[in-house]
Every structure is written in C-alpha cells, then in structure tokens.
Design goal:
Strand content: under 5%
Number of domains: 2
Structural class: mainly alpha
Radius of gyration: 20 Å
Number of helices: 5
Largest sheet: none
Shape: globular
Distance between the termini: 66 Å
Length: 148
C-alpha cells in the first residue's frame, strides 16, 4: 500500500514537471512580435543605476534576458541549419529558416535588424515573433554556404 502511494506520487510529480516544462517552452515560441520588440528595446537604452528604481532595474534585466535568450536561440538555430545544409539550393519557402551569420560581429547587429524589421512592418506586431524575427535575420544574412 505504501509503495503504491509513493509510486503514484512520483508519477504525478514527473508528469507535472514535464507539463510545466512543455508549457514554458511553448510560451517561448508564442511570443508576439510586439513583446519581443518591447523586450529588445531595452538593449538600445542606457540607464544610470542611480536615477532608476530597483523595480525598474529588475524589469529591465528581465526584458534584457528575454531578448537575449530569444535572439541567441533563434540565431544559433538559423546559423547551424545553414552550416549543416547538405544541398546547394534552398527553396524560397525554406530560406527564412537558414541564415549565414559568419559575418555578424555582435548580438546587437541581430537585435537592430529585428527592431528595424518590426518598425518597417508594424502589421506583423501581433503575429508570432520567431517567424518574423527569423525572416528579418535570414533576409539580412541569407544562407550562402560555400561548398568545396
């Protein structure tokens, strides 16, 4: 009887943990573009820590982390897909899932491109951020892998 209760508790705990991980990971992909832009705008500002409250600093840190985590994950995925590409041509439909970021010198370059894309295309503000951020990055730095 005691073993069944312990087993049930362990199974329930594992299921809840997996459910929470899935919910968190899905929310990362569901960011609307305006949310990402709002988070990434913090990287374009500078704050004097003596002139802002602790609450504002913590909110800025949260936005900064959201932006950087999103941009780094997306750019790593786009670049690694390009580097591991085994064909010489990419379909136009697939091109936005590849980017050659070998000439990009900073994350700020990527962020500025995503912000510029959003500014030039405000009609996409309520749509999925990863889709349009990927489009912005892949249009600026298309995958042009050199084959030996």
């Amino acid at each position: 009887m005691k073993l069944n209760i312990i087993t049930t508790c362990i199974i329930l705990l594992v299921n809840l943990t997996l459910f929470n991980i899935k919910v968190w990971s899905n929310s990362f992909y569901d960011y609307p573009m305006f949310f990402l832009v709002n988070a990434c705008n913090i990287t374009q500002e500078s704050f004097n820590p003596y002139e802002v409250s602790k609450k504002e600093m913590l909110e800025g840190k949260k936005k900064y982390n959201t932006c950087m985590n999103f941009i780094m994950s997306l750019s790593t995925t786009l670049n690694s897909r390009c580097m591991s590409l085994e064909t010489e041509k990419i379909n136009p439909e697939e091109s936005m899932t590849y980017a050659d970021l070998s000439d990009v010198f900073s994350t700020q370059d990527l962020i500025r491109e995503v912000l510029l894309y959003s500014k030039n295309n405000p009609q996409f503000d309520n749509q999925i951020a990863w889709l349009h951020a990927a489009k912005a990055i892949s249009q600026k730095w298309p995958c042009k892998k050199i084959f030996n």
